Amino acid sequence: MRKTTILKDNWKFLKADIPCETAVQYAAQGESVTLPHTWNAEDGQDGGNDYHRGACWYVRELSKEETAGERLFLEFAGAAMSADVYLNGTHLVHHDGGYSAFRCELTGHLSEKNILAVRVDNSDSRTVYPQKADFTFYGGLYRPVSLIAVPEEHFELLKDGTPGIKVTPLVDLEKKCAHVTVETWHNGTSVDITVNGETKTVENKAEFVIEDVHLWDGLDDPYLYTASARLSSGDEVSTRFGCRVFACDPQKGFFLNGRSYPLRGVSRHQDLKGKGNALSKEDMAADMAIIRELGANTLRLAHYQHAQEFYDLCDENGIVVWAEIPYITMHMTEGRENTLTQMKELITQCYNHPCIAVWGLSNEITAASAVNEDLLENHRLLNELCHRMDPTRLTTMADVFMLETDSPILDIPDINSYNLYFGWYLGELEQNDEFFDEYHEKYPDKVIGFSEYGADANPAFHSSHPEKGDYTEEYQALYHEHMLKMIEERPYLWATHVWNLFDFAADGRDEGGKHGENQKGLVTFDRLTRKDAFWLYKAAWNHQEPFVHLCSKRYVNRCEDETEIKVYSNQSEVRLYVDGTYYGTETGRTIFRFRIPLLGNHVIKAESGAVSDTMCICRVSEPDESYIFNKAAASVTNWFDAEEVDPACFSIKDTLGEIRTNPQAGAVLEAMMAKGASERGDVADAVKDNPGLQRMMARMTLISLLKQSGADEESIKQVNRILQGIRKN
Ligand code: GCB
User: Fold this and answer.
1) Whose CA is nearest to atom 7 of ligand 1?
2) Ligand 1: distance of its center to the CA of 134 in Å?
3) 145: left (phi over 0), alpha (psi -120 to 50) or beta
4) How many domains, the chain?
5) 381-394 confidence digits (pLDDT tens)
6) Which of 422, 585, 608, 618 has its CA 20 to 30 A from that of 443?
7) Do the domain assignments include residue 410?
8) What mean pLDDT do residues 525-532 have?
9) CA nearest neighbour of 27 among 57, 54, 3, 48
10) Could you report the per-residue pLDDT of 643-654, keeping only the tens digit for each?
């Protein structure tokens, strides 16, 4: 028999980088904590990029009862980022990587009184990923720690955190059967392996055939089988598995069990406002409920290995998953070994989950690194490792927008995917469409996906003239309306993932009225507010639960004669009532628009069949300043909208490409850029050296570039005056 004891209580936490003996000696004076725990729950979420990154200690005495058993192992489901485990002062194991599980054996080191001390360290490192990324690197024992007592004869526990049992189901769709191979690792002589009611006694590996197989069929029917293995000592392991076939076609996109199944969904980070990454099972289940409500059929579990409980939830809910390691943003020449061990652990620990379709090698790794031989070699080794450990799944990679599509790195993974932020960080929305059209035409035989896209929104900010960079709920909604359509028109995209389902902590950020948060979420960090864009996707993806949603409900005070009333719904007809009087009906799909005169206070009701939604808006004489985040940019916009521009001459409304066609106007631009370059050298250099980026910049209007770079109103006006003095042709 196996006994697992979760060590939740009675830990002492010391926020100090001290020797083990000192930590043990002063443990009583430490802070009492329960696991899961992170020391960055507050300072990792409040901005300033100043959260504690260092080594801390967790100390706990193990009771007699807890240490009973023939062989005793200790399991850490996640210790961020590196950990050293000591029992009674003896160092037992060192582990690098904050997102994968590891174990060590305590047997032989136990005495009368047993003190466990764990040094956990999230400081800077040149060898352990992640080091540069847009999320908080929380430190702590933020997932459960357990004792596992097993008999002398038991399943393997140490190697890469293995579950001891590995199941490979290969499905024959025509014959409607599955060939299931079950492998086990143990120190006994034989093992009884059971699948679907059939038991085989073997040395370690058995093959089964399941006739008339019940498929794991995505959201509709995520059926799970169980495989179990038992030794004569009574030690037993079991795992669930699913029988399904994933395939990708460059023209037709993703297939599940032989039918077209475009993967459309979101990404998720594993943190929560006020708690950091120390989540409970209930927190995870609540996240999954929101994912189901949205109607997404895929998740990119970014940017690292998530909790086993979360992959379990994806198995149970039929969500197709992209799993990845935190090999992100910046390649480290001394980090190769760590990428390989993190990948080995990810695959070993997650192999049995039917939800996982692809292994992600890296994310935007060329954002801060050149494509050199060392980086290519690292990717080749990772790719080979994935194929060696798991020939049944494809490998992929999330490419940064400025990575040239003919870069040799794209040839390494089986399939690719791009992260594009046109329409947010730079460029215009249409450039997303153009990018994929060009790619698809140039590489008709390559599978391509859309691994990230998004725009930040703070639901406190609103506008009737939303635009890029204003952080309004309305701009985010418009952005996603464009993207949803763009994606629907391109079924060849094997997977698309909104960045991100939830706002998340990025302590280095300070923007859009919040400190320390990336606000690209469709839902706020505390999960309490679904932004309008959430309802857009729900209207497109959730066909189960009829609803109508009135947009801009938080935009109450409006200063205009006429206002737009926009409704998102998964119904085909929406009726509108203003102050109790029928106003009109719109038919269509997903987005329904009305315009109404704004006279005073109004009660607006949208209705479709049995479902309805209501809001109140009111006419005000002055714009409500509390809705505007970027007041400087807003005033530039107001000035610019009112300004008469002579179209025969150049202006800041022209694109950089147009301006460059004229030597005189081009010289004005160069001079302006050179001034900017001397102020922010690195960025300008990156643009200069990157033809792809240059091409994209050529399509940006000068006004959007100026606003984005934070230029003040006076200098924008000045550049415009100069350009207006230069005639086109
Ligand atoms: C990216 C990164 C992601 C960031 C995101 C953003 O490309 O992969 O980690 O959070 O952009 O919001 O800038």
Assistant:
1) 419
2) 6
3) beta
4) 5
5) 999 999 999 999 99
6) 422
7) yes
8) 98
9) 57
10) 778 999 999 999
